[in-house]
Amino acid sequence: GSGDASRAVADWRLALWTLCSVLLPVLITAWCSFQRSRRQLLIRDIFRKSKHDWHYTDLFVQPSYCCVCAQHILRGAFCGCCGLRVSERCLKKADQRFLCKEIVMRGTGAPGSMPHHWIRGNVPLCSCCMVCKQQCGTQPKLCDYRCVWCQYTVHDECMVDCLRTEDCTFGEFKDLIIPPYYLSAINQMRKEKRTSYEKVVPYCRKHWMPVIVLANTRSGNNMGETLLGEFKMLLNPVQVFDLSKIAPAKALQLCTLLPCNAVRVLVCGGDGTVGWVLDAIDEMKIKGQERYIPQVAILPLGTGNDLSNTLGWGAGYAGEVPVEQILRNVMEADGIKLDRWKVQVTNKGYYNLRKPKVFTMNNYFSIGPDALMALNFHAHREKTPSLFSSRIINKAVYFFYGTKDCLVQECKDLNKKVELELDGERIELPNLEGIIVLNIGYWGGGCRLWEGMGDEPYPLARHDDGLLEVVGVHGSFHCAQIQVKLANPVRLGQAHTVRLILKSSKMPMQVDGEPWAQGPCTVTITHKTRALMLSHSGEQTDDDASSLSE
Is the pLDDT of residue 545 over 80? Predict the structure, then answer.
């Protein structure tokens, strides 16, 4: 009896210990998960209510120290506007203790001036003290100061009282920044219903050319989010807009508060984003705001970036150039004009009551294999958008569909299906699979299509002469040969007006990379307007590389 009882007790003990060993980790995990979710809710609540532009990171890319407790931190929160870095547990204190960049100046300061806004610690690598000219941030601790406006840095021991109250000069980019005191003066004048902005500093300054940054965070290689933060650090955050949250037409209304013919807009995105912004600028003309029209520069984040390439801004940005250099390029850029064209597609048919489709073209119109590749690419991207987050993957998919078309030849005998008229004169077409109407020098992600191999004379091609270049291609393989300069296109001519009649069957068409399948129709391309653009002289532009006919 006693042996059975002791065995039963031992069994109960074993069962209890087994239960504890199973339940305890589960309870600990559940408790940790609950605390983590509670902590995340608190962090999100602080982020939502804060005037700082807080972001959370699991790993800082450079050695960082908490601005409250001064401890070394690997992860935590940082402000995308003023650059504060803080540990998770000190976030609430930092949010209450430190002010962020002021978009509009408050308080009673002298008109046309404001003091430095110093932030302690985490100064940029290789920055130099404005007093002693020695390197800052060299000690492994929270040390030295940085002004969030002029970006000047000062050692702890060099920081004196006069620097704390000294007026900020806004540093290297003073000609691009919209100062908070300017916006506060404009606000006051608007309340008083006065519009004589030219009396407000720095409106009257000769070289002031404020920049507005419009970034599409969904373009190409998804760098827009990072760039937004970097531009907010260097400029006034009110100048930087995320086009996924605000439309260009609304963002560009800021131009009406700034000097006439002086504003520069930097569009961070692909050619589609640039077209979107230029359409919004055309709306400004319709509203009678023509004197506020800005000049447009491009930071290419898309896949093709042919317009950016033509204007000298490069074929694609992957972070290789510092944001400071990008702003310098915008300051030094030269103003040029870009022709914009109206593309009207009228469907054929006796009972067709639908209005013609109307597009605005900046780059090119095409019918044939390249439009088919774009159509297949867009259909694939709509099914699985998560796969198309890299410029390399996008180009690989284009290559796949181009190779497929070489074998299938879906667009053959195009010359039998269409009629082409240039300035009212009908053109006899050779055996072709595609026709491309060009406004700019680059096509297909970096190919100079009109130029071809460059081994034969061809007429001058410009993007501001009111002329279109019309070429034919024999198929996808011919397109590939032209891209690697092994073949010339079939140059069909130049014209002020292009008319193309599709007589039968559906064919793929595209305008500036936006494709669709089109039945019998008439396509008419006429001049619409001219856009004010900025050309980067550091790169070869379209006009520099064009050749004259002998």
Answer: no
